[in-house]
Design a protein that fits this description.
- It is a single chain.
- The protein has about 1150 residues and is α/β, with parallel strands linked by helices.
- The protein has 37 helices and 35 strands.
- The longest helix is centred in the middle third of the chain and has 38 residues, at about 480-520.
- The chain is elongated, with a radius of gyration of 44 Å.
């Protein structure tokens, strides 16, 4: 005997009559009475207990009581007429008479269960025969129904009675129309007709168990037409039930409320049934059991079943997908498996914001739905990536105002929680894509945080123009007053709105000015019209652009989190149409293979992907266009990243694991020299390896270089990336990817140091400790630029032109540093380069080019070029500046086409302008398009006002090689660079620069207009000139002008990227001193020639011979100066003597005393 509850008594096999009596006496308010194989219940024992039983008893259960007889039930039902639940299992002496007494006397009866137990394998033969002898017939069931007064019967179980046929079920259905649950399992005589009779009379059925009966697909069709309230259906063990029947059952939403379905051991059931169950018609299904069926795969539409809790596929021997070890672990594991492989309704969400903004608390609540605040912070750690499936829990559906479609329920958001350190904002830029959702999180109670969010929204809108932004103001609980909280939100919105209005005003002013100037022209220039079209488009976008609403939220009170969820979900479903793009089956197969490769590979080449696609039959023989299409789609959904290689002929790199790549990027951007590291020494330097473990001091020194010098040695990468755990070839590929992405720059100037020889790991022998990479985004590169190469103003005899790229509205953090890295990477290796924190210095043939950020905020980038003017004059030198610098401008243009909108101006040196006052600090900026229009309308003198000074720019000299009216900016740059113009007698432009011009027209390297913030057709354009009005061909120039130059300083000659030792600097200074001597000599010779011209024998004009002499002397003087500057003393002396000899041979000069000539020669020799 066991007393389970105060009002329930249960008696087992050994309970005696006396014990039962005592228990009944002690429980006068008994509500439930159970007997389980109680052997003492025979020979009238049951009757002895009736008088002790509570008349208000509600439940009676008798399990295998062979001694229980009809008369016992008759008397018991007369005493306990309030019975609501009766269960009789294998009571072999009970017939229809005893059952009829229960249904006639117990009018409140709600549940009746009549079951005949199966024979257990180890059960005694005699007991088994007695158990199975209870065999109710159709007459017994008829008797049960005829005298019934139980008008409230809801649940009926008739299990394992072979004679419960169609007639019996027809009578039952007519007698008990109130039934909501019927179980006739293992009633083999019950077939389709029995089901018809049952469901035609019982219209309220919610649960119907038909396991191991004789039904077929016809019964499912009957159920579909008559049982709209059905929630549970079990047809297990019915061999005639197939996919056709389940399709009919589930079609047209007939059983839309179905929550549980079982069809185990039905050999004709396949994954087709699963597909139907996962469809729109079964939105509420929670439990599916298809054990021992012919299901071969689980359809991916399982992701739309956000209420599914049980999926039992055990013993499905043909199951292939997902793997059985996944399929047998439950719904959550299957869902996770499919979410990782799902390509539809997938989006990357990037959480941005300053330190302490509350990003981690927000994502913790989104992904775990917990109300406890999160103490974890990512501010000093790497990025964390979370996966949020908003509709996995159907509770979020109630937050959305519109009806959620089945395919939308598979929404999968990859949330990148980015630390708030400033360097992290620079590192995350490659992951901000037009198909990603930025969520900016800030501390609404902190003024600095509120100011920072305005800047963050500015650069996000500059990079991702049409992408919506979600703003979340965390820590709202710190502002107790609701009005003050609302005021702070309004101030943030007002700041964003003012930023937009300022940009709109700037663009409007530019458009008005261009429109007025263009209206005065007779010729329409394509680049001007392109710029005006872009301005109109941008203004139209800004007109409808409103500041995002600020959602105040608190991790302490969880107030506002539902609004954040709603904003993210609704924005995702409404503003990212790429998620609804259908996925080809072959693309899905390719992605599955990429996921397998992802286990060992972070980065691979596109050629490898091409081979993979060829194997699947998608792209035939590696069709490049189809490969690019596949990559673009995978990039859009955020599962891979790509970066083109330089040169373009090399295969591009594909990142299979963006999360691992981002962690690798964050790991090397160490901005705290006190950061601690832990390494497992035996993993990198085994005890019995050939290479001993380096000393801790050496490791510390190598690691400190990252935070203090902004550089990292190649052999240190595995230590920094120990969490990624990849082989050496993958380490090299990740490094290559970061170099091609301009996140790393190879340092070619630092000489090898034997101190770090022991820093090699035997596991990574190919990674050298002497190969060093600079990390530009740490802004820790050398501050000392090449001051001797590049002084604040041009040198004597030099021309300078500047091109300024002003970003709109502001640049992404680190943009200027990334552009400089991109240019250094893209330019040929035979171009001399020096790279430091403030800029990049290039030597392209005859031209020095400097790239630099104007301010620390990177609001604009300057490209400045200088060239020493030869005897050919300023106009020819200007053309060389344009022709050579066009190679760099092409690269900047190509990079900015995918990064930021910008306005371009030209900054000329004093050679190109006149100004009334000598007191001016800044040179004028000439807008490119106004140069073109001003050239036609103001007689080549274009007025520019800077402060109180009025400048007049000589556009005729500034733009000797005009663009044509039909050219766009890229074709104009390309034509300039391909001209290869040089000054005579000097070094030539490297031939490898021509590849830049060739690649500029490669369509695959340029983004399309739809996806680029600045398209090729709408970029800032340069001026053009009608070929008919040009003074000659593209490389011809008019009459030379003499323009005075300012005094300037010395120039350093760049030979390579190395740093100069003290000895080399001393040698260089001596060489420069020799150059000064050559200048003095040249001036002395020129003065002597002038004096001799005045002393000619009465000649008032120069003779032809005298002109030839002057030319010979000038050439000799130039050779002497050049030789002196190169440090060749012998050649210098030879050239000077040649000049002196030419002077001495002048046939036009007067005869003078011989000591004059000797004195001249003596003077020259003494100078040498």
């Amino acid at each position: 005997m066991e007393e389970r509850e105060r009002k329930t008594l249960s008696f087992g096999k050994s309970a005696t009559v006396e014990e039962i009596k005592i228990s009944l006496q002690r429980t006068p308010k008994l509500s439930a009475l159970e007997f389980v194989e109680t052997e003492s219940m025979k020979d009238g024992a049951f009757l002895k207990l009736i008088e002790l039983t509570n008349p208000e008893l509600e439940m009676l259960s008798c399990d295998r009581l062979s001694g229980l007889k009809d008369e016992d039930l008759v008397i018991f039902s007369e005493r306990c007429q309030n019975l609501k639940e009766i269960s009789l299992n294998s009571c072999s002496n009970i017939s229809g008479t005893g059952l009829a007494s229960l249904t006639s006397n117990c009018t409140p009866l709600e549940s009746l269960a009549l079951t005949r137990a199966e024979t257990a394998e180890n059960e005694d033969v005699a007991a088994a025969e007695e158990t199975c002898s209870w065999n109710l017939t159709e007459n017994d069931f008829r008797t049960l129904c005829v005298r019934s007064k139980a008008t409230t019967l809801r649940r009926l179980r008739i299990v394992n009675f072979p004679r419960a046929n169609t007639y019996a079920l027809e009578v039952i259905g007519q007698t008990f129309p109130t039934l909501t649950s019927v179980d006739i399992s293992r009633c083999s005589a019950a077939g389709d007709e029995a089901v018809r009779q049952l469901i035609s009379n019982c219209s309220l059925l919610e649960t119907l168990i038909l396991a191991e009966t004789g039904i077929s697909d016809l019964s499912l069709s009957l159920i579909a037409s008559s049982s709209e309230a059905l929630t549970t259906l079990d047809v297990s063990g019915c061999p005639q039930v197939s996919d056709e029947g389940t399709t009919t059952l589930l079609a047209d939403g007939s059983v839309i409320n179905l929550r549980s379905f079982s069809a185990s051991t039905c050999p004709l059931i396949t994954e087709r049934t699963l597909s139907e169950l996962f469809s729109r018609s079964c939105r509420s299904v929670e439990e599916i059991t298809l054990r021992n069926t012919n299901v071969t795969k689980v359809p991916g539409t399982i992701l739309s079943c956000n209420r599914l809790r049980v999926l039992n596929l055990e013993s499905c021997r043909n199951l292939q997908y997902p793997p059985k070890d996944v399929a047998t672990q439950g719904v959550d594991k299957i869902m996770d498996y499919y979410q990782e492989r799902n390509l539809t309704f997938r989006l990357r969400v990037v959480l941005l914001g300053p330190v302490g903004g509350g990003k981690t608390s927000l994502v913790h609540h989104l992904t775990t739905d917990t109300k406890a605040p999160c103490d974890k912070s990512t501010d000093n750690d790497s990025v964390e990536v979370y996966h949020w499936h908003p509709f996995r829990d159907h509770k979020n559906e109630s937050l959305i105002s519109k009806e959620i479609q089945p395919d939308e329920k598979s929404l999968n958001l990859d949330i990148y929680d980015v630390p708030g350190r400033p360097v992290c904002a620079r590192c995350i830029q490659p992951f901000l894509h037009i198909t990603s959702l930025p969520v900016v999180v800030f501390d609404i109670s902190d003024d600095k945080s509120c100011d920072a969010v305005i800047e963050d929204v500015g650069y996000i809108r500059g990079k991702l123009r049409n992408v919506p932004i979600v703003l979340v103001g965390m820590h709202a609980d710190r502002i107790l007053d609701e009005g003050a909280r609302r005021k702070t939100c309004d101030e943030v919105q007002r700041g964003i709105q003012e930023q937009t209005q300022n940009l709109r005003q700037d663009l409007t002013d530019e458009l008005d000015s261009l429109s007025r100037s263009a209206a005065a022209q007779k010729t329409e220039y394509r680049m001007v019209s392109d710029r005006m079209q872009w301005l109109r488009r941008r203004l139209k976008q800004l007109k409808d652009q409103r500041p995002p609403a600020v959602i105040p939220a608190s991790a302490v009170t969880t107030k506002g989190f539902d609004e954040v969820k709603k904003a993210i979900i609704e924005t995702t479903l409404a503003d990212f149409p790429h998620m609804r793009k259908p996925v080809k089956e072959q693309t899905q197969k390719v992605f599955h293979q990429l996921l397998e490769m992802k286990k060992k590979n972070v980065v691979m080449e596109s050629e490898e992907l091409g081979k993979l696609l060829s194997l699947t039959g998608e792209t035939g023989n590696g069709n490049a266009a189809k490969i690019a299409e596949e990559l673009k789609f995978l990039c859009d959904v955020g599962v891979v990243l790509t970066v083109p290689r330089v040169p373009k002929s090399s295969p591009s790199l594909v990142c299979l694991d963006p999360t691992a790549l981002l962690r690798a990027i964050f790991a090397i951007h160490v901005d705290n020299p006190n950061k601690s590291f832990r390494f497992e020494a035996k993993r990198f330097w085994p005890k019995h390896g050939a290479v001993s473990k380096p000393s801790p001091g050496l490791l510390v020194k190598a690691l400190e270089e990252i935070a203090l010098r902004g550089c990292i040695r190649e052999s240190v990468f595995p230590l920094m990336w120990q969490d990624i755990d990849v082989e050496e070839d993958q380490i090299k590929r990740i490094i290559d990817y970061l170099v091609q992405s301009c996140i790393l720059v190879l340092d070619t100037s630092t000489p090898p140091s034997p101190t770090f020889n022991n820093l090699v790991s035997p596991k990574f022998p190919g990674l050298s400790p002497h190969r060093i990479y600079q990390i530009p985004l740490l802004t820790l590169m050398s501050e000392d630029g090449p001051t001797l190469n590049w002084t604040p103003e041009p040198f004597l005899g030099d021309l300078q032109l500047g091109w300024r790229f002003r970003f709109l509205p502001r640049s992404s953090p680190g943009l200027a540093a990334t552009i400089m890295s991109f240019c250094r990477l893209s330019l040929p290796t035979d171009c001399c380069k020096l790279h430091w924190r403030g800029g990049l210095l290039l030597k392209l043939g005859q031209v020095f080019v400097k790239l630099s950020a104007v301010t620390e905020e990177d609001w604009c980038l300057d490209v400045t070029s200088r060239l020493t003017t030869d005897e050919e004059g300023d106009r020819r030198a200007t053309e060389v500046l344009w022709s050579t610098t066009a190679n760099v401008l092409i690269l900047v243009h190509r990079f900015l086409a995918t990064q930021s909108a910008y306005r371009m101006t030209v900054i000329p040196c004093p050679t190109y302008f006149e100004v009334d006052s000598d007191e001016y600090d800044d040179w004028p900026e000439v807008p490119i398009h106004h140069c073109l229009l001003g050239y036609r309308s103001s007689g080549c003198k274009f007025p520019v006002t800077v402060g109180r000074n009025e400048f007049k720019v000589d556009l005729d000299l500034l733009s000797p090689n005009q663009a044509r009216p039909d050219e766009d900016i890229l074709s104009w740059f390309t034509r300039l660079s391909s001209a290869n113009v040089t000054l005579s007698g000097d070094s030539f432009i490297p031939a490898s620069l021509s590849t830049i011009a060739q690649e500029s027209f490669n369509s695959s390297s340029l983004p399309s207009t739809d996806h680029s913030p600045v398209s090729t057709q709408s970029l800032v354009s340069l001026w053009s000139q009608d070929p008919a009005s040009s003074p000659g061909s593209d490389t011809s120039f008019g009459k030379e002008k003499k323009i005075p130059r300012k005094k300037s300083s010395l120039k350093w000659n760049i030979a390579d990227d190395r740093k100069f030792t003290e000895e080399e600097e001393t040698k260089e200074c001596k060489r420069i001193a020799s150059g000064l001597v050559a200048v003095v000599v040249a001036e002395a010779i020129a003065k002597h020639i002038s004096e001799q011209s005045e002393l000619t024998n009465g000649h008032t004009t120069r003779t032809l011979q005298h002109m030839d002499l002057c030319q010979a002397v000038a050439i000799a003087s130039a050779k002497a100066a050049k030789a002196a500057q190169c440090g060749d003393a012998a050649a210098t002396a030879s050239a000077i003597l040649e000049a002196v000899r030419a002077v001495g041979e002048d046939p036009t000069k007067k005869t003078t005393p011989s000591r004059t000539s000797s004195a001249m020669k003596s003077k020259l020799c003494s100078i040498l």
